[in-house]
Amino acid sequence: MNKLRFDIEWERVDGSRGDELAATWARLAIRVEDATITRVNDYRSLGLRDHLLIPVYPLAEWIATHWWSLLYEAQAPGRDGYEHRHNLRFGREGFALPDLLIKPMGERALIEWRALELPQARVGFPTSGARDLDLEDIRNALADLIETVLARLDQQAVTDTCLHQEWQTIQAADAMETAFCIAAARLGQDPYALSEPAANAILAAANQLGTVH
How many domains does the chain have? Predict the structure, then answer.
């Protein structure tokens, strides 16, 4: 059993804006080992539940867009924007998501979650905690989420989305491209948005360190 899990039960919700959102409404539960990160106080129903009812597409797209950073950028003092690249709550696009931070540390990664109130959504996430996991387990869980969402989109005849394009680019990367993307991410850079001088500097450093072959 994966230590990080995204459990999805598809739902049909009428009136959503955008084909990607309409196709991917689901009951989403995020679990880390024995902890349920999506345990939520619903202030409308005055109840406690273990799942969210949201479209999963925005989260999957955010994960794909930040793939290299999420998995390979260690936290560094003074580096701007780290939380925006590593905290799932920044993938919510107006929907409720927990404050869940993924912090890579070599072959391991620390997952931290913190209590969070979202008054506009009238929900609150009451739990906090942390787990130290294998990075490979996290990579597999994130990839499974993306591929599950893509399969749902294809089934609903929603094709050629930004998520399709991002994931195809990631999957098509050869060994040299992958090494470059990892090297850029470790420096806090988006490998797909670098200037030519910056890209050349990263390539030179990676070659010197023997990480590009």
Answer: 2
Whole-number pLDDT of residue 1: 52
How far apart are alpha carbons 7 and 101 in whole angstroms?
18
Q: Can you read off the two tokens belonging to residue 50?
A: 């273990």
Domain co-membership, 96 together with 184? no
pLDDT averaged per 10 residues in sequence order, the chain, 213 residues:
88 83 96 96 89 96 97 90 95 92 96 95 95 96 98 96 97 92 91 86 68 48
The length of the chain, given as a count of residues: 213
Residues 140 and 102 in one domain: yes
What is the extent of the structural domain holding 203? 173-213
- Whether residue 89 is found in the same domain as residue 104: yes
- Tokens 């609903």, located at residue: 156
